Structures are given as C-alpha cells and as structure tokens.
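Why do we bother with holo predictions? Because pocket geometry can differ from the apo form. Keep that in mind while you read this record for molybdenum atom.
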Amino acid sequence: MPSDIKTHYRTCNLCEAMCGLEISHQGGKILQIKGDKQDVFSRGHICPKAIALQDLHEDPDRLRTPLKRQGNEWLPISWDAAFREIGAKIKDIQRQQGNDAVAAYLGNPNVHNYGNMLLGKKLWQALGSRNLFSATSVDQLPHHIVSHLLFGHQLQIPVPDIDHTDYFFIIGANPMASNGSIMSVPDIKNRLKAITARGGKIVVLDPRRTETAELATEHHFIKPASDALFLLAFCHVLVNEKQLHTQKDLLPCHGLHDLPELFADFSPEMIAASTGIPANNIRRLCNEFIAAPSAVMYGRMGVSVQKAGTLCQYLIMLCNILCKRLDQTGGLMFANPAVNLLPHSGRGSMGKHFTRVRKLAGFGGELPVSALAEEILTPGTGQIKALFSVAGNPVLSTPNGQQLDKALASLDYMVAIDMYITETSRHAHIILPPSSPLERDHYDVVFHNLAVRNTAKYSPALFNKDKNTQHDWQIFLRLAKTLRPAKKISARITQQLMLRNGPRLLLASLLRFGPHGRGFKAGGLSLRKLQKEPHGIDLGPLKPCLPKALHHKDKHIHLRPDFFQSAISECKTWLTHNPDELLLIGRRHVRNNNSWLHNSQRLIKGKNRCTAQLHSQTAAIFNIHNGAHIKVSSRVGNVQIEAQISDDIMPGVISIPHGFGHHAGSGWQIAREHAGVSANDLTDEQNTDPLSGNAVLNGVPVTISPLSA
Ligand SMILES: Nc1nc2c(c(=O)[nH]1)N[C@H]1C(S)=C(S)[C@@H](COP(=O)(O)OP(=O)(O)OC[C@H]3O[C@@H](n4cnc5c(=O)[nH]c(N)nc54)[C@H](O)[C@@H]3O)O[C@H]1N2
Ligand SMILES: Nc1nc2c(c(=O)[nH]1)N[C@H]1C(S)=C(S)[C@@H](COP(=O)(O)OP(=O)(O)OC[C@H]3O[C@@H](n4cnc5c(=O)[nH]c(N)nc54)[C@H](O)[C@@H]3O)O[C@H]1N2
Ligand code: SF4
Ligand SMILES: [Mo]
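The structure, written out:
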C-alpha cells in the first residue's frame, strides 16, 4: 500500500450488530470499507449496509448546513440565527400554552449515537414537557415492561446465549435480515450454522419462510398475531401438565402458584386451529425444549408489535424461567457491559401519566407514539403545537402515517434534527443537520448491554468535522442553553464544561466506574486503554448473575400474574378462526434500514423490494397475477403496490416492508426514484397493545383487490 493510504478501524453504528470495520482512506477520501478480521466481536463479518457509511458521508443530498423553510423552499441559515429563532418561537409557545405544548419524538438512530444517549436528556429536560414520544412504542416497549415488572429494571433485558445453546427457539424474528435485535450478534449466519453443526436445533415460528427459517432445522407457519395463544398452550403444557412451576430449584420467584389458573383454559388442542400449529407439534416442541441440554426461546418484532405483544414477551420469559433456561449457559442471559447505564437510568414506571385525548398510559417517561397525531390535531388545553423530531421519520415509521403527515403540517412550529429532508422533516420550519457518523467518535453505550458476548470498543472519529458542522450533542446543548439559560453560576460552569468536553468525559467516567473499571485506582478498563485497542477488548462470555443482579430488593423475580390476567382472558375471545381474514405483516431486507438508507444507489439498486408478498392460494382467490398491481386497504387508508406471489408465505397473509413511501417533497433524490409505498399508511393508530400502548404493526386486517390487469 502506498504510504499515504491510511487504515481506520471503527464499529459500524447502523444496526445493533456492532460489526468492526476496516476503512482505508487517502486524503479525506474513502477507498474501501471491509470487515475487520481482528475485531474481537465480529471477526471480520459485515453486511452490505456497511458501505452505506461511505455513501451517507459523501451523499450530496445530506444536509451540511441548517435550513429554514419558506413555503416550499429551503434556504440556508446560520447556526446562530437558527438557534435564536428556535429559542424565541419555542419559548413563546410554551409561555402562552404551557410546556406540554411542545413535544419531542426521538427516532431509532439516537440509540446508536452515544452523544445523543448521554446528553440528549439535557434538551428534553430544558423543554420540561410530558409529551415525549419515541420509536420505542413502535418497537421494543414490551421488553422494557416485562423486565421492569419481573427483574425490577426496564433495561435489564436478557439475550440468547447463541454461541452455547443447543436449542434456539425463534418466534417472530428474522436475524438473517435484521442482523439481530435485542441480541447484538455480528455474523449471525455462522453463529446459527454453528448451532446445527454441533448437533443442536433451530426452530422458527413465522408466517413467512424467512432467510432465518431457511437455516433452521424446523420452520412452522403461524397465523399472524396468534403467538400469544401458542405460548399460552406452551405454558399450559409446562405448568398444568408437567407442573414445572413446582420444581424446587427454580430461580426465586413470586407468583408461581397462580400460574396454573392462568393457563388452565389453553390446551394445545384448543388453540391448534387458531394458530395453525397442530397440538402434537406443540407437545413435541415442549418436550424438546425441556429435554435439550441447553435451550433458549427468543421473540422479536414479529411478536413485539402485535396486539398481545407484551403478553407474548412475558410468556416467552416464563417459558425460559420454567424450563430453567434463564441465566444459564446456552439460555437467556444477561450481559455485563463495560458501560452499564442501568444505575444511571430510570428503572421504568407505569401509568404515571396518560395521553390527553385517548388516555393511553405512558411508560418510563414516554407516551405511545400511536397517539402523537391526535394530540396535535385535537384542540383543547394541552394540545401539542410544536415538535422537535430528532433522528426519526415517524411519517413513515409510525401507524397511520398519513394522519401524522397532516398533523405535522398543522403545527405552529417544528424543528427537525436530521441530515436529510425526509417525509417528516419536510414539515419542519428549521432543519438542523448533525455531523456524519464518520465525523464523530463512537462507543455503543446501549448495545453492549444486549450483546451475546461481553466486549468493549471505542472508535475515534475518522474525519475531523469542519467548524460549521455541529454534532447532535452540540445541537442539544446549545438548544438547551437557549431555552433554559442556567441561572446559578455552578450550573453555568457545568453547561460550559459539557459544551467544551461533550460526551467523551462522561464515557470515560462510565468506563472507569463501570463493572470492568477500577474507579480511581490504576488498572482496569478505561477509555485510555480502549484507545490503544482499535479492534476492541474481549471481556468474555455471558455469565450467570442471578439472583444477585435482580433490581427488586427482595432478590426475587416478580411474575406478576395479576398484571397479565386481563390480557390472557381477552385471548379466549381469539379462539375462533376466520378463514377469510387477510392479515398484513412487515418484512425486513438486509439492504434496507428502516426508512433511511434508500438514498444509497449501491444499496437500493436491483429488483423492486417494496412489493406485497402473498401466497398463490390467496392470489388465486382474488385473481391476482405475479407482478400485477393491487390495492391494499385497511381501516385507515390504502396503497397501490406490486404483487409478488410466493409460497414462502402463509396463505391469508400479505407482507409489505415498512420505510418506503418516499415523498416528492423530500430531499433524497435516489430514494424518491424508488419511492414505493408506506406500509404505515395501512397500520392503524387506534389499534394498540392494551398492556403497553405499543403499536400493532403485524397482524393488521386488510382487504385486497386487483387493479386493472
Ligand atoms: N410497519 C412497520 N413500521 C415500523 C416497523 C416495522 O417493522 N413495521 N419497525 C419499527 C421500528 S423497529 C423502528 S426502530 C422504527 C424506526 O423509526 P424512526 O426512528 O422514526 O425512523 P428511521 O427510518 O429509523 O429514521 C431515522 C432518521 O434519523 C436520521 N438520522 C440517521 N442518523 C442520524 C443521526 O446520527 N443523527 C440525527 N439527528 N439523525 C439521524 C435519518 O436521516 C432518518 O431520517 O420504525 C418502526 N416502524
Ligand atoms: N436490514 C435491516 N436490518 C435491521 C433493520 C432494517 O430495517 N433493515 N431494522 C433494525 C431494527 S430498528 C430492528 S427493531 C430490528 C428488528 O429485527 P427483527 O425482529 O429480527 O426483524 P424483522 O425482520 O422485523 O423480523 C420479524 C419477523 O417476524 C415475522 N412476523 C410478522 N408477524 C408475525 C407474527 O404475528 N408472529 C410471528 N411469529 N412472526 C411474525 C416476520 O415475518 C419477520 O420475519 O432490525 C434491525 N436491523
Ligand atoms: S450487520 Fe449491522 S453493524 Fe454489521 S455491517 Fe451491517 S449494518 Fe453494520
Ligand atoms: Mo427498531
């Protein structure tokens, strides 16, 4: 290699897998991005999206300076002028209509950005509004609630010990496309293959025969949103038939004795027709799950964002507990990350506040985003009049996007912190673009807590940002300072210190005082030590840590059957089977990332991915041919989309990926050429999980009809 070619190592921040990248660059230009073979966690693996970091960095459509909207036109504005205008408008609205008139929506990439995680709250605190929404309530909210109830902390979420399991039971997850979620696991393919190679088994329950199902030992179609019934029958066998709740050597639990009553009515025979899974299969799977030397049951988006999402995640946890799979090697285990955010975050609180219009309960200081549009559109005291949208695209990612689109257009004022003019940020009065991911340093403060192995890695910035570029955290701190200038001298000094040092100082102290650091003593893990290890440091496999690590004072798991009783009773009404029902589910593809990587030509090229997949039997009923255009309608709207006939999907199910539906008024030119339609123009904001307020994005009733041939 010529000497002026340099190599930079960093962790990819695009998804949860935390792959190590090796980036060669010369004179400020990226030459190549490949997997870092020496990375202690990912061992050289990357997915096709890694190259998007270059495309994103170089994308001429990526905003590099704040923009102010004048009608339909966008004009550059200086940072100082932008902060001044925002400060004045927001203060004015809050003075006249109260703090709650200003809301914030936080999108998914916040969690992949440690500055946002560590300093974002300064902005929400400065706003002082109870109207805080995020992508959590179209995603993993049920996991937080289950962990809050059972273990005493919303962030204490166990993950599959995939590298040591003999039996991986996957319900409603497609890690081969998603690269794992609530399970940070680079190189999923080889880790899955290793399970079967060592004589283990992978079982997948999914209405689609997915890329993950292809690798599994066994795949079963399950009717969308019937998983709670399947899991109730599974628990029925474990508890009512095999009495596993009476075992003496279970982890200490409260509430075991109430379990038989909960599951009494759900024998495998009762639920077979409604789920599509024969009773003998359920009993066999139970026996196998109990008998395997090690085993783990895991469920993700397919079960999290359905009507009984919270119940499903609860029942999955119960199966793991009853079969002694929780906190066991090869089972469901807790990570021990170098940065442990648990002591510094709320343990989770339920029902402390409710949305104004529909009275949906909040959790952990946030409200369900399914209610955001109506909170903007419904007049009255407490109506939302202004919004900060931060690293999110809720018009494409939350239910009934069309309604939210209208709501955003009606706001008195909106600010977007985003690097693109998106379907959402196009409604903003001002867009504040942050630095590109390659211009900032990186440490995963969230996903090491959900990783299948304990490792730590710090990535410095690859490129220096120029003076006119601001990191997200700088934008937050400057906004906070404008909105709530510190009064006391000590607070002013802290504000100034934070602005000068950013999140790195906090990271350094979290590492030093974290589980692998030694505080003020020498030795132990520190930022300085990590800076010398560009491929990361291996901290070993997941280890048992219960009951010590439980956050409940009594060091017991609280099973809380009382909390789930009503949802379980409700399931009894689902025991009827309607053969004519057509249910919508989602679909992820390894080259998409929610709504925002469609502007990379290298990723979007190829066959149209925004299609409606349906089974040939379903197609025949509606007289639909492969490639035909069809209309899909739901209670809230309709879309016109290309049909893709595939027998890899269950009859009676239709699958449309989310994140498409790019608007002509957006600024991503390549994405617009592959606009597609938004699945969330069909999902219903009124349809939420009663236990959590989480959105129902899978199992949405729709009808279809062919458009002219
Ligand atoms: N129907 C259906 N809907 C779904 C899902 C589904 O499976 N089906 N999945 C849901 C899930 S799991 C999620 S997480 C949500 C995602 O929902 P959102 O988070 O609302 O949407 P994203 O598409 O991730 O949009 C991210 C935005 O952040 C911007 N961005 C990227 N990086 C940064 C950064 O570092 N700083 C800033 N300031 N901006 C940045 C991008 O330009 C983009 O506009 O979608 C949900 N919606
Ligand atoms: N390439 C890519 N990777 C991503 C993302 C992306 O958009 N693209 N998004 C990231 C984000 S934000 C997240 S949260 C994760 C999500 O990660 P995953 O949950 O692994 O991803 P999904 O592909 O949504 O998997 C859900 C699976 O559930 C199935 N399913 C749908 N409905 C049901 C049902 O009712 N019952 C059952 N049993 N299964 C059902 C679907 O067919 C699908 O295979 O992926 C992350 N990684
Ligand atoms: S799997 Fe995720 S972390 Fe790894 S390269 Fe792809 S997008 Fe990046
Ligand atoms: Mo997500």
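Residues 575-706 form a domain with the Barwin-like endoglucanases fold (CATH 2.40.40.20).
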